[in-house]
């Protein structure tokens, strides 16, 4: 008895585009490929969930296969940046890759922070490939009244 598999036209199209790009030595991002980089993909971004409570915002980023040393989090001018790199496993003489579907390479995610976030309160936790950032909310700034001398 034969197995029934579900046909996914998007996967077929992506496979066709990958084969076409390999034929002309072009990556998905438009750069030239070198022989070893045939299986590497650097056009990825980790999946992120953003949640809000009355006290804080929480950002959770999935970074499977990475360690905390591979990730850098910065806040500058109201923008939170998460960047890092997931390194691929090198092929050796005794091991050959037949299919590589996971994404490898550098990534950068940026998020504009709302005005009510205290940029100095960012706390990071990294466990089991999950980066959790907690950003405390700041007290709303009172509007400042300025007297204008009309002449």
Provide a descriptive summary of the structure in words.
The chain has one helix and seven strands; from the N terminus they run αβββββββ. The protein has 151 residues and is mainly beta. The strands form two sheets. The chain has a four-stranded antiparallel β-sheet, with no helix packed on it. A three-stranded antiparallel β-sheet has the order 3-4-5, with no helix packed on it. The longest helix is centred in the first third of the chain and has 15 residues, at 9-23. It is elongated.
Tell me, briefly, the overall form: elongated
Poorly predicted runs of 5 or more residues: 29-42
Query: N-to-C SSE series?
Result: HEEEEEEE
Number of DSSP helices? Answer: 1
CATH topology category name of the domain at 43-88 and 104-140? Immunoglobulin-like
Which value, in Å, is the CA radius of gyration?
Answer: 23 Å
CATH class of the domain at 43-88 and 104-140, anyone? Mainly Beta
How much of the residues is beta strand, in percent? Answer: 25-35%
**Total beta strands:** 7
Care to give the gist of this entry?
The protein has 151 residues and is mainly β.
Keywords:
mainly beta; Immunoglobulin-like; three-stranded antiparallel sheet; elongated
């Amino acid at each position: 008895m034969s197995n029934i598999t579900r046909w996914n036209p998007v996967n077929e199209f992506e496979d066709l585009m990958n084969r076409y790009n390999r034929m002309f030595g072009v990556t998905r991002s438009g750069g030239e490929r070198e022989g070893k980089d045939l299986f590497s993909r650097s056009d990825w971004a980790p999946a992120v969930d953003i949640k809000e409570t009355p006290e804080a915002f929480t950002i959770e980023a999935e970074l499977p296969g990475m360690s905390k040393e591979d990730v850098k989090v910065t806040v500058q001018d109201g923008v939170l940046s998460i960047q890092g790199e997931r390194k691929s496993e090198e092929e050796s003489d005794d091991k050959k890759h037949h299919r590589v579907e996971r994404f490898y390479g550098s990534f950068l995610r940026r998020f504009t922070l709302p005005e009510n976030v205290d940029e100095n309160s960012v706390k990071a936790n990294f466990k089991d490939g999950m980066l959790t950032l907690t950003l405390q909310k700041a007290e709303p700034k009172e509007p400042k009244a300025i007297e204008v001398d009309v002449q």
